């Protein structure tokens, strides 16, 4: 099964993706833009991580694929809470030259459609480090996500402290956004 957007497809990660995932997992500049802490990752650790994904119903990770470029990044729905119908969402476009071309916006829309229309979730959340202005603009300017709070000085990066923005979107936000988009057509 795959989840189709207009230019992108979200699909299961496969063993054939390991080399590209390994390169991205060790890209210091890429990880500086993402949350969490990251250590250098071996090929074996990457293989073990991929092997654990197949049976994890609470943490779904997808490859972002285009017909032109193949695998360009990853997206996820993690910490899925089936009782409260919520999940955390994240994504990354691994190739720097493909960022800023609308793929991220399409991934967000495709993930929301899948989460809200297919899985029946009611809310998604994400976090963004304050200096990642491109991601912040994509989620809040081109998608219906709202900054719901800021955790001051959450991250230590580049020798200083940075805030973490907490963002959220509800199924109702998504449906209103889709209706407005359909009305503009």
TrEMBL record:
<keyword id="KW-0012">Acyltransferase</keyword>
<protein>
    <submittedName>
        <fullName>Spermidine N(1)-acetyltransferase</fullName>
        <ecNumber>2.3.1.57</ecNumber>
    </submittedName>
</protein>
<dbReference type="Pfam" id="PF13302">
    <property type="entry name" value="Acetyltransf_3"/>
</dbReference>
<feature type="domain" description="N-acetyltransferase">
    <location>
        <begin position="8"/>
        <end position="173"/>
    </location>
</feature>
<dbReference type="InterPro" id="IPR016181">
    <property type="entry name" value="Acyl_CoA_acyltransferase"/>
</dbReference>
<keyword id="KW-0808">Transferase</keyword>
<dbReference type="GO" id="GO:0004145">
    <property type="term" value="F:diamine N-acetyltransferase activity"/>
</dbReference>
<dbReference type="InterPro" id="IPR000182">
    <property type="entry name" value="GNAT_dom"/>
</dbReference>
